[in-house]
Write a structure and sequence with these properties.
The protein is an alpha+beta fold. It has one domain (28-195): Beta Barrel (Lipocalin), CATH 2.40.128. It is 18% helix and 57% strand. It has a 10-stranded antiparallel β-barrel.
Length: 196
Amino acid sequence: MKKFFWHKAVLAASLSILTGCSQSISDYQQLTPELALDQFFLGSGRAYGVMHNWRGQQSVRFVADLCGEWQQGQGDLYEVFYFSDGRVEQRHWQLSQSAEGEITGTAGDVVGEATGQLAGNSLYWQYVLRLPYDGDTLDVTVKDWLHLVDEKNLINRTTLHKFGFKVAELTLSIQQLDAKADCSALKQQVAEIAAN
């Protein structure tokens, strides 16, 4: 009887730990400073990231230059990534932010539309990313959590999934450098990389 009790207690504790691991964007509703994409991703920024494979091993690092332009809730975010393996890649997000904090976005390597929700200092959004893989492409589901630390610094934790299994994890920090910066040079660089 004692053995049965302990097995039941361990099972209950395990279930409470597992269910306690899930999070909802509404959990962050009261946290400040409030994240607004049209304020944080405005002007120039810089990101530093590390990708880990499914085993948790560091696979690649990168630095990225960012620049955003916004008008009435519609934004263009330009990104150029410099990877530790020598690759240089670009992404041009076309973003929309509603008054209720709903976020949608499209990009050249995103299948369909990215969708998400802002609450407090955080954004959760999800999309399908098409990656080059072994001479072909691979579509993975991206689950993205962004948390604003202060007005100029944000932490981004991303998991990539295939067939429901986590295949990689990305951690990056993003810093807004100059909200009044002109994006022309980075916009041109993104266009040149995309054309190659």
